[in-house]
Amino acid sequence: MDGITQHNTYRxxxxxxVPTIRIFKGDILHTPTPDAFEVVEDGFIIxxxxxxxxxxxxxxSEYANLPVADCNGSLIIPGFNDLHIHAPQYPMxxxxxxxxLLPWLERYTFPAEANxxxxxxxxxxxxxxxxxxxxxxxxxxSAFATLHAGSTxxxxxxxxxxxxxxxxGKVNMDRNAPESLIESTDDSLAATQKLIEKSRELTPDxxxxxxxxxxxxxxxxLMQGLGALVERYDLPVQSHLDENFxxxxxxxxxxxxxxxxxxxxxxxxxxxxxxxxxxxCVHTSERERALLKARHVYLxxxxxxxxxxxSGIMPVRRNLDYGLTISxxxxxxxxxxxxxxxxxxxxxxxxxMLSMLPEHQGERPLLLPEAFYMATKAGGSFFGRVxxxxxxxxxxxxxxREDDNPLGLSPQERLERYIYAGDDRSITHRFVAGREIxxxxxxxx
Amino acid sequence: MDGITQHNTYRxxxxxxVPTIRIFKGDILHTPTPDAFEVVEDGFIIxxxxxxxxxxxxxxSEYANLPVADCNGSLIIPGFNDLHIHAPQYPMxxxxxxxxLLPWLERYTFPAEANxxxxxxxxxxxxxxxxxxxxxxxxxxSAFATLHAGSTxxxxxxxxxxxxxxxxGKVNMDRNAPESLIESTDDSLAATQKLIEKSRELTPDxxxxxxxxxxxxxxxxLMQGLGALVERYDLPVQSHLDENFxxxxxxxxxxxxxxxxxxxxxxxxxxxxxxxxxxxCVHTSERERALLKARHVYLxxxxxxxxxxxSGIMPVRRNLDYGLTISxxxxxxxxxxxxxxxxxxxxxxxxxMLSMLPEHQGERPLLLPEAFYMATKAGGSFFGRVxxxxxxxxxxxxxxREDDNPLGLSPQERLERYIYAGDDRSITHRFVAGREIxxxxxxxx
Lengths: 445, 445
Description:
The structure is a homodimer of 445-residue chains.
Chain A: E1 21-30, E2 38-48, E3 51-56, E4 69-78, E5 80-86, H1 101-114, H2 119-136, E6 138-144, H3 149-162, E7 167-169, E8 171-172, H4 185-202, E9 207-208, E10 211-212, H5 220-233, E11 237-241, H6 245-254, H7 261-267, E12 276-280, H8 286-294, E13 298-301, H9 303-308, H10 316-322, E14 325-328, H11 340-355, H12 368-380, E15 397-400, H13 411-421, E16 427-432, E17 435-436
Parallel strand pairs in A: 1-4, 5-6, 6-7, 7-9, 8-10, 11-12, 12-13, 13-14
Antiparallel strand pairs in A: 1-2, 2-3, 4-15, 15-16, 16-17
Helix pairs in contact in A: 2-3, 3-4, 4-5, 11-12
C-alpha cells in the first residue's frame, strides 16, 4: 500500500495544467442504490480534485502514466456518516443502562454535559472524541455539543483542525432543565447568533446546525427565535422526535393547540426542507410521517440507543416503503459505541426482531446493502454529494484491510465480516473529499 | 503491574512447607449472587494452589511478608465462560445473515464444517480460534467440533496446550445432513467411543462432552447408543433445543410418540442431571421447562444468534423466576463474535425488547449484575467451582485495564464501561485455576 499518500498533478497533451488526479486501486464497494452492493474487484477509482470522476475495472490509457495508490487486497468503501451523536456524552458512553431514562439523564448525562463549562475538559474530551470518530471511520457527522457557546466553538475549531467534516450545534434549552444546564431565552438566542457568525469566520469547513434539545426543553419564544435564525442564516436543524411515549405525552401537554409533536417544530420554523435531522422517530403517527416526507426530513435511526433506553424500535421497513429518508446513527452516549459498523448490525437485528411481531408480520427485515446505504449515501446526502463513489461525489473513503482471506471470500463477504465482526483495527486509511486524514490529535491518549 | 507472574512458596512459623500462595491486589468485582456486584476496591485476593482462599480489603499479618501481584488501577473479575460455541464455524462468523437458517446452513455452515476433514485447516483455524477466545477472556467453554474424530482430537490437544479449559464434543449426525457431513450410526458410535478413551489419555484437562447435533440429525439408534456412552463413561451432554418453530415441528414429525422435543433427549438418556447444556430454548413449553428444571439443565442463552437468525428471544426473566439455570453463550458462527462482554449487552438488550411486548409487560429486564452472573458463575458452575471469587473457587480471572479514569468512576462503572464499550484490548492478564495463560499460539496471526 505504499504510494497511497502520493499526490500528483500532470499536464495533458496540450500542455495545460489539469487538476490534481489521484487513482486508487482495490476492491471497491458502494451502494448507489439500497438494493445491492456495486462491487468492482481489483478496480480503480479516479479522483479529480477530491471528487470521484469514475470507477473502472481497467485503467483507461489517458491515466496510464499516473502513479496508482495500490490498496491491493484491501476494500475501499465510502466513509461512514453519523447523523446523531452527542459529543459531550462520549465520556460516559456505556454507563447507566440499568437506569430508566430520567434517572439516567440526571445521574450521567446532565453532569457530563455540565462539565463542558470547563475549558480543560473541553480540550481533553473533544480531542478524544474526534480521535475516536476518526478511528472508527465516521468522517462526517451531526453533533450536539452543550449549551456552552465557548466550548461549542472549541469543538468546531478542533473539528476544523481534524480534517473531519461535521456540522455542530450549540444546544439550546431554556425550560425543564437542571440548574447547571439552563439559560435564559435571550441569552440562548444571542449566544447562538454570535456563534453562527464567529464560526463562519473561524471554522469555514464546519457547518453550524440549529439545535433545540427537544420541544420540552425549549420555550415557544426560544423556538420562535431559533426559527428566525434558521431563516436568516439559511441553517439546518437537528433535534429529537418521538423517542418514547412519556416524552410524546409531555409535548402534547405543553402544546395542546398543535396537533402533533413534529408539527411543533414545523410551527416554529424548525423544519427547513431537506435540511432537518430528527433523531429516533420510534413512535411517529401517520400525520407526522406525512410531514416528515413532505419536508424531506432525515430520520436518524438509533437502534442501539432505543434498545438501551427501552424506547422501542423504529418501523424502518414501513418508513422506507413510505418514502422516508433514514440514516443510521450512534446516539452516543445513549448508544454505547460510535462504531457505525456495529450500528448497521444493530439496525438489522432490530428490524429482524420487529418482523417477528404479529403486527409486522410479512415485513422483510433490513438487508445488509440497505443498512449500508443508510449509513453511507442516505446519511451522506445531508452533507452534499457524499456517501457513494458515483461520479461527482466527494471521495470520502475508508480502506479496510481484513484478514489474509485464506477462505477465498468475495469482496462482499469480506465487507460483511468487517461490518459484523471487525473494528477500527481493520481501517488502515481514511479520506475526506480526497484528502487523507491522519489521527487528529496524536498527543492525546 | 510488575510481579504479577511471581510465584512463591513460603514456610509458616512451624517450618512446615505450605502450598503455593499468590496474592493479587486490585479493584475486585464478582457476583456471588445475581442481585449485585460484590466490590472490594483496592482489595486483595489470596489464592492457594490455584484456589481462592479469601478476598480481603486489608492484608492479614500472616501474609505480610509475601510479595503481592499489584494490579493497582485495574479491575480483577472472574473469567468468562461460554457454554455454546461451534469451533469450526469461527472462520465464517459474521457471514450470511441476510439468509434464512436453511440457506445459511447450506451455504456457509456445512461447507465450513466439512473443511475440517483437512488437517491443515484444523491446525490453522483451531489455533486461531483458541487465540481468539483467549484474547476476549473466554477461559472455559463447551464447544461443538465437527464429526471428524481426528480433527476433534486435535482441537482437544491444542486446547490442552493452550491452558484454556473447555469441554469439547465430536458432533454426531447420521440423518438429514449433507453428504459431506454424515456418518453411519455404527461409525459414529465407534469413533465417539474411541475418542472418549483416547482423549482421557492424551488430554487429561479437557473434558469430552457427548454432542448429538440436534434431534433431527440423529437417528433413534444413534441417540440410544450415545445415551449408553453417557452412562458408561459418566459424561455430560450438549445439544440444541427449541431454537425455532420449524425445527420444533420437524422434531414432532420425527418423534410423534414423544410428547415434546426436550423429552426426546431425555428418552434416549441424553439429559444427565446437572451435566446437560441445551442451547437456545427460545420456545420451550411449560412441560419442557419443568423437565429442564428437574434435570438441572444449563440453558445456553444465545441472544445474538437468535437475533441474527430471526429465531426469537428467550424469556429470560420468566425462566429465571421459574428457577432455571441460564448462562450466556456466543453461539459462534450464528453469533458473529465470541466476545462475552458483547453477549452480556445483547442479552440485556434482548430482555429490554421483550419487556416492551404486551405479553411480557411488567417483566423487569435483565440488570447488569444478573447478566454478568450468568456469564461467570452460572456458566462456570458447569465446570465445578468456577466463575466467582468465593472461597474454594478456582482462581479464573481477567485483569482489565481501563482508561486512566479521569472521570473518577467507581469500579463498577469502570466494569460497566468495559462491558458495554470495551474489547479485548482492555484485558491485560488471564488466569485459569491460578495459572497465568499466555497467548496460546503466538506464531499464528
